[in-house]
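One example given next:
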Amino acid sequence: MAVNKCVIFAGRPVSKELCTYWADADYVIAADAGYERALQAGVEPDLALGDYDSSPVPKDAKEVICLPAEKDDTDTFFAVKKALEAGCREIVLLGALGGRLDHTMANLQTLIFLQQQGVSAMAAEQGQEITVLGEGTHYISARPGWYLSLFSCGEQAQGVTLRGVKYPLQNADITYLWPVGVSNEFAAERAEITVSKGKLYCMLCKMEE
C-alpha cells in the first residue's frame, strides 16, 4: 500500500473533534507522550517512538523505537524523519502547539524544514492551523469565521501580494519587525497569496464567539 499522508501525534492533548485530520491518514506515528494522546483520541499508532522521559514505554504498540535522552533531534523531529523515510508527502502534526514554548518553536521550525523538502505540512489544534508558504502563488479556501494571518519565517518575505481578503497587499515586504499580516479576513471564495522571495507562516485561527 502506498504511504502518502502521515499524522504525527506529539505530546499535547488532542481533541477527538480533530478526527478529520487523521481519518484519511495512511500512517500514524506517536512521538513519546503522543502515544497516550493518540489512544485517548481513539487512534492506534502504526509506530511509537521517543526517549520516553515524559511517559512510559508503550507495551502494546505495533512497533516501538526507543531513543536516547541525549540527542540532536526532538522526538517529533525524529518522527518527521521516519515519515519522510516512509515516503510520506503530506504530514500533519497534532498536539504540537502550546505547552512548552521551546518545543512549540521547534515544531514551527520543523514546518520550515518540511516545506524545504517539498512536503505539504501543517500543525493543527482545535481552531488553529499553521503551515509554511514558499515562493510562488498559493490559494487558501475561505473559512467564514476564521482569521488569516501571515508572518515572515525569517528576516523578511519579499514581494508579497495578497488578494481575496479584507486587507489586501501589493508587492509588500513582510518582516519580523512589524506584524502587518495579523488577523486578516476572507473577502472572497479563496485568498490568493503570492511570495516572490522568502517564506511565510500562514495561520488560520477561528474567531472567538
Notes: The radius of gyration is 18 Å. The helical segments are 19-22, 34-40, 75-85, 101-116. DSSP finds four helices and 14 strands in the chain. Residues 133-206 form a domain with the Jelly Rolls fold (CATH 2.60.120.320).
